[in-house]
Design goal:
Layout lengths: L5 H28 L5 E5 L2 E8 L13 H23 L4 H24 L2 E9 L2 E2 L5 H25 L1
Helix pairs in contact: 1-3, 2-3, 3-4
Length: 163
């Protein structure tokens, strides 16, 4: 492997760390001010709520008996190491590295929840009428943004290669 750009890597790790800090601060605020299940009506389509998710996205494996906590911690740790490797390998691909930093910051935020609490703290409740999207948090939003940026990066890469 060629020379890596440590300064660039530190920049992306800084983005991931900022996401992690904001995520954890929002979760601490919810834990301090809300009881489990308590919610505040914000708009006709948005509530703030305290939810504990022991599963993955959309509560996948939430009732699996506890083993999933360490499974998701392991996946998060392995993914973080892989994303650092990718950022070091592609330091000039800014959109790609930003996408990975968003995903990493969110993933580490949720892994930290699992290590500290045994579950992920969710608080955003988007709904239309009686239909509710599964509650989520800032980490989930960062992961989603990162995936969107990865898709955009790939679309742009393919377009550039065709010209």
């Amino acid at each position: 492997m060629g020379k890596t750009n440590t300064g660039g890597l530190l920049q992306w790790l800084g983005v991931a760390f900022l996401i992690l800090v904001l995520d954890q601060l929002s979760k601490v605020a919810i834990l301090l001010h809300y009881q489990l299940g308590e919610s505040t009506y914000l708009t006709e389509w948005l509530n703030l709520v305290r939810v504990h998710n022991s599963g993955a996205a959309f509560s996948f494996l939430a009732g699996a008996g506890g083993w999933q906590r360490w499974f998701f911690v392991g996946i998060g740790a392995a993914a973080t190491v892989f994303m650092i490797y990718l950022m070091r390998s592609h330091p000039t691909q800014k959109l790609f590295c930003l996408a990975l930093a968003c995903i990493m910051g969110g993933a580490v935020g949720n892994v930290l929840d699992r290590l500290i609490h045994g579950y992920v703290v969710d608080m955003v409740d988007f709904h239309i009428g009686s239909w509710h999207f599964p509650a989520f948090n800032l980490a989930d939003s960062a992961i989603t943004l990162g995936v969107i940026l990865l898709l955009l990066d790939e679309i742009l890469r393919v377009r550039r290669s065709r010209h």
